[in-house]
Amino acid sequence: MAAFMLEVASRYSDCIQFVFKPHPRLYSELVKHEDWGEEKAHLYYQKWADGGNTQIETGEYVDLFMTSDAMIHDCGSFSVEYHYSGKPVMFVSDDFEKLVAEKGTFGQLAMHQHYVGNNQQDIINFIENVVLKGDDPMKEDRERFKKDYLLPPNGKTVAQNTMDVLLKAFC
Known about the structure:
Layout: H1 2-11, E1 18-20, H2 26-32, H3 37-50, E2 54-56, H4 62-67, E3 71-73, H5 78-81, E4 89-92, H6 96-101, H7 105-111, E5 115-117, H8 120-132, H9 139-150, H10 158-170
Parallel strand pairs: 1-2, 3-4, 4-5
Helix pairs in contact: 2-3
């Protein structure tokens, strides 16, 4: 998918800004990989840094999540966090159901809030229909998941809920 994602960024250069947010260990793993090596890894990262509508982000990701319009990823670590944004998200995997089966109940619920792609056309369809056209049939499900599982109960902050419990216990 590496070369394909750069092609996608080029295809949509007039309307979408793409960000490559690699896992902190990806570069060192690519350098050791027999099909990549240091030069190829460096050139790939450089293409993301130098593109007119691309960037590479190796630091924090919270602001990135909040300012993005959507995310395409293959990282289990982001399976819950991005749902706080309420925005559409696609998980790319050759065997999504196997990955889901390895998760606990909460992880499975979070994963099922993703659009799923396992090929290049799925990614293009997500970009064309969900991101650009705004056709997001999973939006209500994501909002319900966020409300039911991610936000503190009672429409209050965690601190206020804690204070309410303490006050009730002492009164």
